[in-house]
Amino acid sequence: MKRYYVIIGNFGSGKTELALNMAFGAAAEGQKVTLVDIDVINPYFRSTERKAELEAAGIRLISPNFTSSGVEVPSIPPEIFSVFSDNSDLVIFDVGGDPVGAIAMGQYYGYFKELENFEVWYVINCRRPLSSGADENIEMIGKITGVSRLRVTGILNNTNLAHETTVRDLMDGLSITREVSDRTGLPVIGTVGSAELLGGFYENARALGTPEKYLGKPYPIVRYMHRDWGRYTESGL
Question: Domains plus CATH for the chain?
Fold first, then answer.
């Protein structure tokens, strides 16, 4: 059955990294994947920055008009409506990281409400100023839900400091994610990080007696959105 995922979260949450990993992972399994970059707020760190890699993997990418062209006012392409009737096995929406960005999703509400296999995941990174505590994340979930009219179905702990992330960061994120889950009733879908960090995190969390419902499924990721000198000299940011 065709599956739809909407990945949302505050700026720096790592939602784009997760969306890319989900797309590449599914494509590697032979699935027909469409990735919709609907982030019309942040001109940097978009899924579209990895357009060449996505296309090479056979992933269909739909981007806001003018992204990666030097123009700072992107608009939503009508092509997005096609994902509700095409033959993709998996459709992933990478949504702008605040209520303003989520407004763009509201126009598709009529299509989403008819779907059977549809998830909206909120990504938490408590190492970012606007999502460092449970209150901030709960408030953001409420605002995004209000403007998009889409109900969040689960949360993920993706607490990180990019390449400087430690098990301690994920453990701190666990505390916040657990509180958000308890106060909202939203299930914890999983914990996101490098394979090495996830191994240490799950071992540590379980040794402390953490219930599995607060850990969720491990989502090991490769970091595609890093800034490296080789890429910069070849194609810029």
Answer: 3-235 (3.40.50.300)
